Amino acid sequence: MEKDSGISKKADEFLQIFKRGEEFTKDLIKENERLRFRIAQLEESVEKSGSEERTRLYEDRIKMLEDEINSLMERYRKTEEENKDFASKYVEVEAENNMLANLYVASYQLHSTLDFNEVLRIVIEIIINLIGAEKFAIFLMDEKTNELLPAAAEGLSLQDISKVKTGEGIIGKVAKEGESYFLEDITNAASEISLSQPAVCIPLKIKEHVIGVISIYSLLIQKNAFSNIDYELFNLLAGHAATAIFSSRLYTQSERKLTTIQSFLDLLKEKPKR
Amino acid sequence: MPNILVVEDSPTMRQLISFAMKRIPESRIIEATDGVDALKKLASEKVDIILADINMPIMDGLKLVSLVRGNPSYKTIPIIMITTEGAEEDKNKALAIGANAYLTKPIQTQELMKLVNSFLS
Questions:
Q1: Predicted pLDDT of residue A85
Q2: In what order do the strands lie in the sheet with B3-7?
Q3: Residue A97 to chain B, least CA–CA distance (Å)
Q4: A105–B19 CB contact, under 8 Å
Q5: A interface mutation test: which of B8, B14, B15, B16 has the most A CBs within 10 A?
Q6: Which of A36, A99, A152, B36 has the fewest CB atoms inside 10 Å of its own CB, making it the most exposed?
């Protein structure tokens, strides 16, 4: 009985120890799970937080960079537009420069001499070299008979060109009215030449007084249309060629009169023989 | 400093071409009125490029090109022909005897500038 009581007591003690151990283990397991949850929470929190912050940071940077890119693209677009603008302006300026060079040279040459024949030669050179005409004639007005007389020609024989009555035909009409004439389609001019049907007819005018007419019948084969420079040269010829021709003719007449008067004076100076 | 020889009997054309060539920095323009005059100028001065008309008195441009190409001292000088003749056969003839380029009148000065600059560079 004593032994039974002792064993039982020991068993109870052991059982209690075991139960306490069990409880402790359960507590440990609970704590472990709680800690594991906490860790997961923290990890998630850290990951999320880091990810979010990083994402936000990256997004901000991306936005900034995108803004910068857009800004640069805008500047590039503007610069490109400016470049195109400059390029077209440059081409424009070059064309203008070419035109001015032609007009300057033509004007300079026309007024570089007072010799009548030289002036006509210069007019011819301008029409060939700067305009690109192949066949043409220069008529000058005879005030007495009111007729246009051929004074010079290129690509045509001067003898084949007849004088023109003012008001008659295209040339005569241009001389009377003082307005330029242009054939609508100058490509036709190349195929058929007619002295009564010029491609271009320009009056030589001093103010509104017509002193002559330039009549162009055909152009060089490589030239198939008129450009702005041509119309400018036509305008220049209408005015400057007229002035140059008029001045040189006046000068020639004056020279001739001077020579005559000089001879007469010399004659008067001679003492009569006694 | 390029020396540019302009061979042209027309004073109007000579002035226009010279006018355009003066825009090339530090260029020097030498003018000749015909082929013979051009050969004299070539003999006495250094020339980097020649611009020559075809239709000229005394000696025409084609003859000038032949003589220039035939002379060892000048045969490498670039020659640009400028003429009223627009036909393809005239162009081929000029290029065949040794011209480097061919321009028809009426010339555009910007076109001439571009061409000359391409040979000088």
A1: 92
A2: B28-32, B3-7, B49-53, B79-83, B101-104
A3: 8
A4: yes
A5: B16
A6: A36
Compute the nearest-CA separation of A186 from chain B (Å): 16
List all residues of chain B from 16 to 45 with a beta carbon under 8 Å from chain A: 16, 19-20
Is residue B82 less than 8 Å (CB to CB) from chain A?
no
Q: How far is CA A176 from CA A148, A232, B88, B113, in A?
A: 11, 22, 42, 43
Tell me which amino acid residue A38 is.
Answer: R
Contact at CB, B12 and A122, closer than 8 angstroms: yes
CA atoms lying within 13 Å on the CB side of residue A63: 6
Q: What does the pLDDT profile of chain B (121 residues) look like in tens digits?
A: 899 999 999 999 999 999 899 988 899 999 999 999 999 999 999 999 999 998 888 888 889 999 999 999 888 999 999 988 877 888 888 899 999 999 998 888 888 999 999 998 7
Instruction: Please give the Cα distance from A162 to A172 (Å, whole number).
Output: 12
> How close A93 gets to chain B, by Cα (Å)?
10
Calculate ∠ Cα B20-B25-B28, nearest 5°: 70
- Does B15 contact chain A (CB < 8 Å)? yes
B17 CA to chain A: closest CA distance, Å? Answer: 9
- Tokens 């890119």 -> residue: A69
Give yes or no for residue A96 having a pLDDT over 60. Answer: yes
Contact B80, B52 (CB under 8 A): yes
Q: Which residues of chain B make contact with A234, given a CB cutoff of 8 A?
A: none
Annotate B55-115 with DSSP letters as a single string: S-SSS-HHHHHHHHHHSTTTTTS-EEEEES---HHHHHHHHHTT-SEEEESSPPHHHHHHH
Closest CA to A173 of A142, A203, A133: A203
B109 touches chain A (CB under 8 A): yes
Are the beta carbons of B25 and A110 closer than 8 angstroms? no
